[in-house]
Design brief:
mainly beta, four-stranded antiparallel sheet, 2 helices
Length: about 350
């Protein structure tokens, strides 16, 4: 059964201020939903009422975002669940798994109401490290080692295949190592990808090929495209780098000292949150890339995934220990965070 942990009273990752000082800001709450194993991916439902989670325990779970109660759990999947996502209308959800052994990789789309499998691609040789629905919900994009594929969300028909190449082959296009994150443009005509081959790529879906590549010095784990679609923010082993899509140059390079694993937008893109390999969460102001607050999360194996609610007022983090933690953005914006024993200005 689910176990809830309230992060209160001067713990390293909780504020020491009394409830009378900040009556409307809820402190972070952790829910034990991963069977004490790493929770590798989380996503809010469009209405913010539920969270879908997946991880090393090989199960997909849907939990109540208010109290952490498990509302549904899948049968064991063939391998670790790597990515979970809701469609924009909340009627479908997708999950991927695999660890590059014994053809256990797959991508499966489920009906949210009945939890029935709608379609799946199974027995794949490379773990499917990423999946995301298009902004209009009609397509699902997936990525594994070197390759990106675009499917019809409701039928599983493959619409496009964006080929990559192995590292020992001269590659005219595509990634030459694992693709770790993808962001769609608002109108769904383009997407932006990053990977362990140290590159940021811009793709035109109708043309079926990449149209720009930005090289970096270190492997990349995550990316964001700014609301104005004029910059790409990438994060990885080397910290954070910001590419200007107008000038095609790097605007900013931020050395964080730790490996960035995940990002999410909050407050309508006014801020974003990063999670790193040692368990730190940092709230950044987008316009000037200022670190507003850094706090310690309760994820002892680092932060593996971040997800924000559709209103941008809450976000969730996951990682080691099988926990998912819910955060009120105001908690990081206010004085409670600066009073935390684990926070850094």
């Amino acid at each position: 059964m689910r176990q809830a942990v309230w992060l209160l009273a001067c713990l390293p990752f909780a504020a020491c201020s009394g409830p009378a000082e900040r009556p409307h800001v809820q402190p972070p709450r952790s829910f034990a939903v991963g069977d004490s194993q790493i929770v590798k991916s989380i996503a809010f439902s469009p209405d913010g009422a539920t969270l879908i989670v997946g991880g090393q325990n090989k199960r997909i779970k849907i939990i109540n975002a208010a109290d952490g109660n498990v509302l549904w759990a899948s049968d064991p999947q063939p391998d670790a669940v790597l990515v979970v996502r809701y469609s924009p209308d909340g009627r479908l959800f997708a999950a991927t798994c695999g660890d590059n052994t014994e053809n256990t990789a797959q991508v499966v789309v489920f009906d949210t109401e009945g939890k029935a499998e709608v379609w799946g691609r199974k027995g794949l040789t490379n773990d499917v490290q990423f999946a995301e629905f298009s902004p209009d919900g009609t397509q699902l994009i997936t990525a594994n080692h070197f390759n990106i594929a675009l499917y019809a969300a409701k039928t599983g028909e493959q619409l496009k295949f964006f080929s990559g190449h192995s590292a020992d082959v001269a590659a005219p296009s595509g990634h030459v190592a694992a693709v770790t994150d993808i962001e769609f443009s608002k109108n769904g005509s383009r997407f932006f990808s990053v990977g362990w081959d140290r590159s940021v790529k811009v793709w035109d879906i109708n043309m079926g090929r990449e149209i720009k590549t930005y090289p970096e010095a270190d492997p990349i784990n995550a990316c964001l495209v700014t609301p104005g679609e004029d910059r790409i923010i990438s994060g990885g082993e080397g910290g954070i780098q910001v590419w200007n899509l107008t000038t095609d140059r790097a605007d900013t390079v931020i050395t964080t000292g730790t490996e960035i694993r995940s990002f999410c937008w909050v407050k309508s893109g006014e801020y974003f949150v990063s999670g790193d390999a040692v368990g730190l969460l940092t709230l950044w102001r987008t316009k000037d890339l200022t670190a507003v607050r850094t706090v310690e999360s309760p994820h002892h194996d680092g932060v593996w995934s971040l997800a924000s609610s559709s209103d941008g007022e809450r976000f969730a983090s996951s990682g080691g220990g099988g926990n998912v933690t819910l955060w009120d953005v105001r908690y990081l914006l206010g004085p409670a965070a600066s009073d935390s024993a684990g926070s850094k200005p």
